[in-house]
Amino acid sequence: MRFHMKSGSDDNDIVAATATAEHIRKFVFTSSHAAERLEIKIPELLQGAYSFYTWPCAPVLAHFLWERRQTLAGKRILELGSGTALPGILAAKCNAQVVLTDNCILPKSLAHIRKSCLANQLQPGVDIDVVGLSWGLLLNSVFRLPPLDLIIAADCFYDPSVFEDIIVSVAFLLERNCGAKFIFTYQERSADWSIEALLKKWKLQALPINMDDIGKESGVDVLEFMGGHTIHLLEITQSENSATINTI
């Protein structure tokens, strides 16, 4: 199921537009077991907003997905807070059906996502979807989302003021998509920040995912992407005893 969101700019114009501070960052994914290679080009605005830069969590999640690429084909995947959309674009290039999302009140961020898609020969509305959402709010766009198998995000827990909004959105989506999972990377910025109480409140459970082998297939040391930061990879699902969510 695909749907089209109207954009105020023509997609070809988005690709043609450049800014002085913009550059193209290339991410290469390979396999030591087979002659497979995928190069993803990400336009970045170094002087732009947070969403115009590829933060360390994104390549870590992208390599995690790449090493499971055989399982991605045909999967229905939603990326929350896509930013430059590296993980979601990789999933789409591995034949997943992907919906990329970012804040619905930030049209420039959504335009930048479309630009990233076009830089990788993915036509928004045809090969991949780009949708504006608002964490914690049940807008029409949430109800128009297709069925999902997997929700992903890279570094969406960057500010405690949005933690519950994210958890509310995830809880709602998992409730509507039985068996779906939320897999995300996050950068540890403070030992005082926690989502444990929010997970309990919204009847969710989290499990850490072992990161030791991420990047090995491509011969990549993910510590280089981390740049000295501590990054975690987790999976969130509904608690086994969760009840239906009546109020969001």
What does this structure look like?
- This is Histone-arginine methyltransferase METTL23.
- It is found in: Cytoplasm; Nucleus.
- InterPro entries: Methyltransf_16 (IPR019410), SAM-dependent_MTases_sf (IPR029063).
- Belongs to the methyltransferase superfamily. METTL23 family.
- It comes from Drosophila pseudoobscura pseudoobscura.
- This protein has 248 residues and is an alpha/beta fold.
- The chain has one domain (23-238): Rossmann fold (3-Layer(aba) Sandwich).
- Helix content is 27%, strand content 24%.
- It has helices spanning 11-16, 57-66, 86-93, 107-119, 140-143, 163-176, 196-201, 222-226, and strands at 22-30, 37-45, 76-80, 97-103, 129-133, 150-154, 181-187, 204-208, 231-238.
- The strands form 2 sheets. Strands 5-4-3-6-7-9-8 form a 7-stranded mixed β-sheet. Strands 1-2 form a two-stranded antiparallel ribbon.
- Helix 6 (163-176) links the parallel strand 6 (150-154) and strand 7.
- The longest helix has 14 residues, at 163-176.
- It is globular and about 45 Å long.
- The two termini are 25 Å apart.
